[in-house]
Amino acid sequence: MATMRNALPRRLVGLASLRAVSTSSLGTFPKRVKIVEVGARDGLQNEKNIVSTSTKIKLIDMLSEAGLPVIEATSFVSPKWVPQIAAGAKEVTVFVAASELFTKKNTNCSIEESLQRSDEILRAARAAGIPVRGYVSCVLGCPYEGKISPAKVAEVTKKIYSMGCYEISLGDTIGVGTPGIMKDMLSAVMHEVPVAALAVHCHDTYGQALANTLVALQMGVSVVDSSVAGLGGCPYAQGASGNLATEDLVYMLSGLGIHTGVNLQKLLEAGTFICQALNRKTSSKVAQATCKL
Amino acid sequence: MGNVPSAVKHCLSYQQLLREHLWIGDSVAGALDPAQETSQLSGLPEYVKIVEVGPRDGLQNEKVIVPTDIKIEFINQLSQTGLSVIEVTSFVSSRWVPQMADHSEVMKGIHQYPGVRYPVLTPNLQGFHRAVAAGATEISVFGAASESFSKKNINCSIEESMQKFEEVVKSARHMNIPVRGYVSCALGCPYEGTITPQKVTEVSKRLYGMGCYEISLGDTIGVGTPGSMKRMLESVMKEIPPSALAVHCHDTYGQALANILTALQMGINVVDSAVSGLGGCPYAKGASGNVATEDLIYMLNGLGLNTGVNLYKVMEAGDFICKAVNKTTNSKVAQASFST
Fold it and tell me: Domain Pyruvate carboxyltransferase: where (chain B) (predicted)?
């Protein structure tokens, strides 16, 4: 479980205003896309080097300045805590997986049990008036089970949506997905959950993230998770890359004429800053192309 | 997302994952596993021809000059992967492109496998004759949709270059040698910026009209995005049938696969790529260049499209050339699969 904290409360843009025009025809895209920046959490968490809290805070500030409407930021909290709520979190996240084996290995329980735990958190959060975002892992494949059926993803997603998550982020955790599989999965999920409540979280382990994201947009998805500089490797494939780089995503969306509210130049600066702090090269191709090294 | 590290040790090894899970394994020509879902995205071609440009476009843009015997071995390895077209070298003056100075030796030295074609670049008649003398049976000519790029790159205007190509194409056709035409800067130019779809169409039509059997539309500096790809193709496809078109996308801004997917959705079924994503970008220092063949095959396999190419063998050829050139691969599939 993780808490979502926005660095500058006024930056938490009302979700209703960002709900995009949904379309089902191939070739048309939403007019606006909300980018959920996960670099400060998912990204940093999966990096070998650790950064200081002040560096993290500076990164979040720079990301905020770049215009990103949602910035995930936290340190990991043990599942034994119910506590984010007590700690004054403004938003809470629940994690489930579409794979039994992944759930077992990751959290030592079955999907059913993890759903029950999520339900408890959701009830507490709703009682406290705190919005909850849901994550579903392994939606396009699992490191243990291999293929994951779209029906299973739809089932799990439907359950946490009905428990009260305002948005569900569908994660291709190991980046094995390709556009056709993304389409099949989304078709199944969209039968159960409105597309406006869906987000995609694509990993770029096999270089497929942007193509997969493109297909999701073509199907009407208008919320995309990404990580500045493509921070975060993949724990399942040594040496592999992890998240989709926010800079590369913004480049594509901008080229498509889709509004994101993000200033690419400032975003690039944030990426340069954190890469220097981590002593690593950026995984963003846009950053590689524009920074004269 | 979620706690991870302790679970890693029990995971399938990545090689195992790739081999045993059909949706990312081989695509055997004409024999897709019936259990595998057929092409999930409607409107896609069933078969995609990959034109491998690593030995030419790739090595041409690498800083290191690769020894002739390594180039020959590299191409021989590629010939055994199932690739049906491998661009071998470029018969340009070694003053301009020292990386391709050994063009004749390479052309003579490779083993020409049956079922594989080995085109070479020929900028003019002189290059063409040298190519034929060295055993070439297919050639390519290289135009641009930008006047500035044409002047800076080949030292003449678009019109002058077309006249040169007319001579080459005429001679080639006289000898029954097929000619492929390239149009650079199809989605943007490092000097002029935006390039109109109309200009791309005009140049493409000219090359096609001369007798080129296929036109490869190149996003030379990788600035294109799915929207600009779509607009450009819509314009070109009014004049040239999609079956005679190919896309050559550079991954300088990470857009290549998204752009290629867009092209496939529009009916294009020939895609250029370079194993390991060889070749940087001469216009953006430190940037990447060609789209990696491995990553392209991965996507096409996942889409259930037939390519006839064995991903593992391509990865092995990629591993070979990267070690020879002493560089890390630009292919994400290769990065994920070979442990560091």
Answer: 48-315
